[in-house]
Amino acid sequence: MLYYPEPLARVISELQKLPTIGPKTAQRLAFFLLRMPESETTKLVQAISDVKTLLSYCDICGNITDRSPCYICTDPERDLQTICVIEDPDDLLAIERTKEYNGLYHALMGVLSPLDGVGPNDLRIDPLFERIRNENIKEVILATNYTTEGQATALYLTKRLENAGIVITRIAYGIPVGGDLEYIDEVTLAKALEGRRRV
Amino acid sequence: MPVQKTQAIVIRSFPLGEFDKIITFYTADFGKIRAVARRVRRPKSRFGGSLELLNHGALVFFERPNKDLHTINDFDLIDAFDGIKADFERTAYGCYLAELVDAIEPGHAVDRSVFRLLRRAFGMLTQIDDIALLSRAFELQLLGLTGYAPQLSHCSVCTNVFRESTVNFSFRFGGVLCTNCVDRDARAISIARGSCELMKQLQKSDLSYLPRFRASELNHREIKFALSNFIFYHTERALKSLEFIENIKL
Lengths: 199, 250
Fold this sequence. Notes:
Strand order of the largest sheet of chain A: 4-3-5-6
Strand content of chain B: 15-25%
Mean pLDDT of chain B: 90
Number of helices of chain B: 7
Largest sheet of chain B: 5 strands, mixed, barrel
Strand content of chain A: 5-15%
Helix content of chain B: 25-40%
Oligomer: heterodimer
């Protein structure tokens, strides 16, 4: 960093902290920022600052929002009797992009992990049970990842909710659209066969 | 970089960057190793779900001599132990067995019998009802294979044959103490003779015989307390998954 003036070195060093940004990309971005009109860099700085100051997590579902409760929790057009349980708010965006789901969400903010010592009290599991008790919920969709920990979390929630008098469903898993059977791993293919359905 | 092939079980994994993971394996021929799985978190990764925790497979990796971190070339799944992963408690116990191997086994110590024990224990974990007893048998046998076997037939200090009706178990001396030597360790705990006898049986019996054993609640409690403290004394590490199992109430 000795080659650069100190302010530029600082920008390069900070940009390198972002995912997938190495020293060369950081340098390219820093020079791009240097050549940008000042009004544009001010907007960028303001936008980054706003992300940290204006955004927070929705008190109800855990979604990232600029107001709490968030737009999804207060939208009367949505199905208020279905909750989709996700690991993190990022998963909400992925599901919303499908335009196939119109219910509510609940982000756990992680998964149960015996090896990392993450137990039910470290996640937003009690608020989920509270919502199920207090809001007229008819179905809970478990959309945690199909990893060992994600699956363990889904099993734990299923066991805890089995007497709650609601329908509990798990998102399907199997062959991705456009996938080639020959190259699918055995676990996924076995699950796809197990979860086959009549056409 | 020589290409190596061996059978392996995934005992730990951490995300690395955006798409990669560092996987800790216990292997049949190289002991415990760590290797990077490139792009494993991408949706179209060639590894798919094969590198999930507790999976057993045929591993091909590029060995980097004198380095701690190798590179995974291929991992062909042999057994995903679906029976474990279909049950929450079995998954938690499976994680505990994996963490125990990770804690007790130093890196690069090659011991096929440890690999066989772990594979066999995962196999039994899908079938057996008393999974806590399986864990105790696994602990005792793993301690035996790694040179930490608790001494249960002879006094750990004077080595006289142990015949007393009251059993005092010392973590420090690594086993039972006779009445003459019990004063040597003020922190020795008292356990029932039946619990000690059961530990002896668990130490030497094949895991497939476990369904024949009957353990009372007292046996379970005493053996668990004795072994978890014994393991803590030797590894100087509190195992997170053991605490997880204790705190989970369903």
